[in-house]
Design goal:
The chain is of the alpha+beta class. It has six helices and seven strands.
């Protein structure tokens, strides 16, 4: 996902891609808030209901990149590209139903989620052997995949999971 990819690439001094002027906005939600919503949906046991889970408000790409730079402590190398065909300028989860029926409300602000993710990333790289392997072109249009290899796994686990692709 974008948060890990941007944190990883900015940390390593690699280029990130910004499509458009940075004004596009997405509803990024910290994992603990999603888990809370799932647990609430299980606990309430409504039959045949669909709930949108999210933060309920958007964060612009420019603000996202600024927060990554702030928490990583490095300036991003940004390659500005044209908007992607078919991309929408704003997406956001309507969490009204989840709030009303489940008592759900995201608690982790986006900036705090980025801070926690950067903290995790740095700890894993420094203390647990998270190694980042060189990227290769993923689909021929300039997007590079990010790969990680966890070197602390046992030999048995390494055979089962030698490489895990993070998108």
């Amino acid at each position: 996902m974008a948060p890990f990819k941007f944190i990883d690439r900015v940390s390593r001094g690699l280029e990130i891609q910004q499509f458009g002027d940075g004004s596009s906005s997405r509803d990024y939600t910290y994992i603990s808030d999603i888990v809370d919503g799932i647990v609430r949906s299980i606990d309430h046991q409504h039959k045949y209901e669909i709930f949108n889970l999210g933060k309920g408000d958007g964060t612009s790409l420019k603000e996202f990149i600024d927060l990554v730079q702030e928490h990583v402590g490095k300036k991003a190398i940004i390659r500005v590209l044209p908007n992607q065909p078919g991309d929408v300028p704003y997406t956001c989860a309507d969490v009204t139903k989840a709030e009303e029926m489940l008592g759900y409300k995201a608690k982790v602000p986006f900036g705090e989620g980025i801070r926690k993710t950067v903290e995790w990333y740095k700890y894993e790289r420094e203390h647990k052997g998270l190694r980042i392997c060189p990227e290769t072109q993923a689909n021929g249009i300039g997007r590079a995949a990010s790969f990680t290899e966890l070197t602390t796994l046992t030999l048995q686990n390494k055979r089962a999971m030698a490489m895990t692709e993070i998108k």
